[in-house]
Write a structure and sequence with these properties.
By secondary structure, this protein is an alpha/beta fold. It has two domains: 178 residues, ATPase, nucleotide binding domain (Nucleotidyltransferase, domain 5), CATH 3.30.420; 167 residues, ATPase, nucleotide binding domain (Nucleotidyltransferase, domain 5), CATH 3.30.420.40. It is 39% helix and 21% strand. It contains 14 helices and 13 strands. The strands form three sheets. It has a six-stranded mixed sheet. A five-stranded mixed sheet has the order 10-9-8-11-12, sandwiched between helices. A hairpin with a 5-residue loop joins strand 2 and strand 3. The chain starts with a strand and ends with a strand.
């Protein structure tokens, strides 16, 4: 039996570009990824978005103009995806578009993702669903992470306790107990700090495979100092982003200017690994299986650190569950669009802290 087709678009805190996934959903949460497509951000757009992470002059107009630019880029990604998949736009039920986060302040009652969903609907002729986080925040939740509900729907296993760890700019953990209980939260920085440090010293967007960081050594006092940040000791529900973990945060911890840059890079990898490990130990049950996704899953140094810290539990990539490590979040937003279109809830109160389950997303009808 043929299923419904949805497109998920994800542009995350790493600011590398747009992940697009064409997903077919059938009954009982069965899904089939038909095609994927990636469209990188121009360097100028990445710089403009980074500048918006902090208050700037005339930022309201600037953010609106960047939102329009993003909508056109998202539309290009959709058109490229459908062209390669040989699927017509009228076959798509809806696009789930996360948008680009420029502020995430649930403690102040708001989150902001830009991307002009109305323009995207006009450019593609496809219904667009966006703004998935605001309703959960309005209900007293964190608005993040949203992917644990998707993970529960497609990855839960009655015979194993599983941890799904997504390492993008921020790292988040989903714990799927064999008895059906699900728990999730942001553990802290993923690639974000290392990417910024690599850009500053090598003028590269990221440290491929962790090769540069591998040439350095861990600075133990720096690692210990960074791990004292109050966020790591907060009890979930909790979520974070570039509002906290940014270059200013790192510079506050770099008390000594004589650190070798590659030693700092290695220490930042260790920070991600230790914060994930500590979060698992403190807030989750015993995991029988651990699966990684997101760009950080390609960082060989990071995966080695995680495996060393986690001991006998094998750390593997989410490819083993049938989904490529680069596409899990885009697929999740296709799923979130499906939930919204069918008026089904998509938040987990034990994850976000909302006062109840809610239908998430705002619909821009084609």
């Amino acid at each position: 039996m043929a299923g419904e087709l949805f497109i998920g678009l994800m542009s995350g805190t790493s600011l590398d570009g747009v992940d697009a996934a064409l997903v077919e959903f059938k009954k009982h949460q069965q899904l089939h990824v038909l095609h994927t497509y990636f469209l990188s951000y121009p360097a100028s757009l990445r710089a403009d978005i980074l500048a918006l992470q902090h208050p700037t002059e005339n930022e309201l107009e600037t953010s609106a103009l960047i939102a329009n630019t993003l909508a056109r880029l998202y539309a290009d990604a959709v058109i490229g995806l459908l062209s390669e998949a040989k699927v017509k736009p009228d076959a798509i039920a809806a696009i789930g578009c996360h948008g680009q986060t420029i502020r995430h302040r649930p403690e102040l009652g708001f989150t902001m993702q830009i991307g002009n969903a109305a323009l995207l609907a006009e450019l593609t002729g496809i219904t667009v669903i966006s703004d998935f986080r605001s309703r959960d925040i309005a209900a007293g939740g964190q608005g993040a992470p949203l992917v644990p509900a998707f993970h529960q729907a497609v990855f839960a296993d009655r015979n194993h306790n599983r941890a799904i760890i997504n390492i993008g700019g921020i790292a988040n953990i989903t714990y799927l107990a064999h008895d059906g209980e699900t728990f999730g939260f942001d553990s802290g920085p993923g690639n974000m700090l290392l990417d910024a440090w690599t850009k500053q010293h090598l003028n590269r967007d990221f440290d491929a495979n962790g090769d540069w960081a591998s040439s350095g050594s861990i600075i133990a006092p720096l690692l210990a100092d960074m791990l004292t940040d109050a966020y790591f000791s907060l009890t979930p529900p909790k979520s974070t982003g570039r509002d906290l973990f940014n270059s200013n945060w790192l510079n506050k911890h770099l008390h000594h200017t004589d650190y070798r840059p590659n030693d700092v890079a290695h220490t930042l990898v260790a920070l991600t690994a230790h914060s994930i490990h500590n979060a698992l130990e403190t807030h989750c049950g015993t995991a029988d299986e651990i699966f990684l996704c997101g760009g950080g899953a390609r960082n060989l140094l990071l995966t080695r650190h995680l495996q060393s810290l986690l001991g006998k539990v094998k750390v593997t990539n989410i490819d083993a569950l049938g989904i490529g490590i680069d596409w899990a979040e885009a697929i999740a937003f296709a799923w979130l669009a499906k939930q919204c279109l069918h008026k089904q809830t998509a938040n987990l109160t034990q994850v976000t802290g909302a006062s109840g389950t809610r239908i998430l997303g705002a619909i821009y009808q084609a």
